[in-house]
Amino acid sequence: MDFKTSFYNHEAFLMEGALGERLKREYGLMPDKNLALAKHVHSMKGRSALKELWMEYAAIADTYGLPFLAVTPTRRVNRERAGDSGTDVGVIGDNVSFLQRIKGENRGEMYAGGMVGSRGDAYTGRGALTEKESREFHKWELDQFGEAGVDFLYAGLIPTFPEAAGLAAAMAETGIPYIISFTIRNNGTLIDGTPICDAISQIDNRVSVPPICYMTNCVHPRIAYEALSQSFHDKALLKRRFLGIQANTAQLSYEELDDAKELLTSEPEALAEAMMALKEICSLKIYGGCCGTDGRHMREIARRL
């Protein structure tokens, strides 16, 4: 079945765990200065490593009867960065083709998403676009994802409301189901100070086709719990529309994580327990991992689901 139908027919999905950290730590693969993780698809070692990680996560999902979501590692790819890389303007299509091939080899239910990121810094909002700029700027990536044939679109680590709104408008025009995932603070706002519920309701009300759901990336579930528990939030809206997390294993702010000299992690049981607690606030459907996670964490989350 297609992703949209599957989303409304399943109670839970397992999303991939960390890629970038594991590629660096376990395989010695460093991100490209312009295209970051997306460049790995152009080397045999990179393709082999990506395949191993995705197949590990997919096998965990299959073991526990959960549909699996994976996204292309293209968050840092945009028309500026691809242009700076010379011959790599086709890197989006190459990543989609490779991920779709992994999907074809996976025996369980799997969906391949195309990941778009903010133009500027995902953790500070520096260099973020206005709504109009965002709608125009991100069309370059979205057109290529549409041509390459992704199952869904995924805007990850979006720190500011204007860029998120512009992205949503551009994504809505593609006709492909899409998800908006914010970077959030424990005070209940996006990085630019927009309350999470305000961002959700405004985007829902101003785009022709709203996102399938909203979620958050690169944050510990206890920080997400604190953020979503703020009294000014519309709890019914959160319950209905905020449906996923790709969680960090360290309960630290973005600033603290940025300054960390080594990997900060926690035990799988503790992370899974904190993620399950989020169900008290929202009807979580998408459970994924970010910094510090590996197969052990994703297996414990899947087991509890």
Concise account of the structure shown:
With 305 residues, this protein is α/β, with parallel strands linked by helices.
Q: If you had to describe this structure to a student in words, what would you say it looks like?
A:
The chain is an alpha/beta fold and 305 residues long. 45% of the residues lie in helices and 14% in strands. It contains 14 helices and 8 strands. It has helices at 3-9, 20-27, 44-63, 79-84, 91-105, 131-137, 139-148, 161-172, 196-206, 221-228, 235-241, 254-259, 268-277, 295-304, and strands at residues 13-15, 68-71, 110-116, 152-158, 178-182, 213-219, 242-247, 286-289. It has an 8-stranded parallel barrel, surrounded by 8 helices. The chain is globular and about 50 Å long.
Q: What is the residue-mean pLDDT, rounded to a whole number?
A: 94
Which ranges are low-confidence, i.e. pLDDT below 50, for 5 or more consecutive residues? none
Strand numbers in spatial order across the main sheet: 1-2-3-4-5-6-7-8
Helix content range: 40-55%
Structural class: alpha/beta
List the total number of helices: 14
What's the number of extended β-strand segments? 8
Could you list some keywords that capture this structure?
305 residues; alpha/beta; eight-stranded parallel beta barrel; 14 helices; globular
